[in-house]
Amino acid sequence: RQEIRKVVQALEQTAREILTLLQGVHQGAGFQDIPKKCQKAREHFGTVRTQLESLKTKFPTDQYYRFHEHWRFVLQRLVFLAAFVVYLESETLVTREAVAEILGIEADRERGFHLDIEDYLSGVLTLASELARLAVNSVTAGDYSRPLRISTFINELDSGFRLLNLKNDSLRKRYDGLKYDVKKIEEVVYDLSIRGLNKEATVGAGGEK
């Protein structure tokens, strides 16, 4: 357990470094730097893969869930960070398989150290909160089309979560937070439409959705 804790602490440190790097997109000038920030974040994920490789050696493969509590939180955070990078790069939702690949672990439970489905969903819900914040900061930075695109994305995400039967209590609570994120983004979009800035955004984006 001591050995596992040591690796988890190192993972938490790397996750903090990636988060600090990506937080820069919320600043006005950060929008121009998005590709560079994503590239740097992906380099940090190389360290994450090495650390997770080390973690795999610290316990018997068939006892994943016995020790799962130790790394559950940091893994959820890493899912969020990977999802945020992919969103910033392509404005799409990363799949569980793609996150597993970024982290250098398995998507399939049968194959050993894997990305649990609930950890993946928790990370995605954290992404929703981050995007709600990004929508507000985009307006401040004078980017009026981004909140409209974020709104479409979050509404699709919300529709997807509505189809799930969430039995896990902590996941249910996190999902309740998604409703507030949807509301927050809707208010931003409404504010833009009241000021007539959403038309400007659509024209400025060259008819981009």
From TrEMBL:
UniProt xrefs under PANTHER family = TRANSLIN AND TRANSLIN ASSOCIATED PROTEIN X
Chain residues that bind Mg(2+)? 130
Q: Which UniProt keywords apply?
A: Cytoplasm, DNA-binding, Endonuclease, Hydrolase, Magnesium, Metal-binding, Nuclease, Nucleus, RNA-binding
What is the name of the gene encoding this protein? Tsn
- Per the record, the domain of life is Eukaryota
Q: Which Pfam families match?
A: Translin (PF01997)
Subunit record text:
Ring-shaped heterooctamer of six TSN and two TSNAX subunits, DNA/RNA binding occurs inside the ring.
Could you state a single Gene Ontology molecular function term?
A: endonuclease activity
InterPro entries, per database record: Translin, Translin_C, Translin_fam, Translin_N, Translin_sf
Q: What is this protein called?
A: Translin
Organism the protein comes from: Cochlearius cochlearius (Boat-billed heron)
Q: Which family does it belong to?
A: Belongs to the translin family.
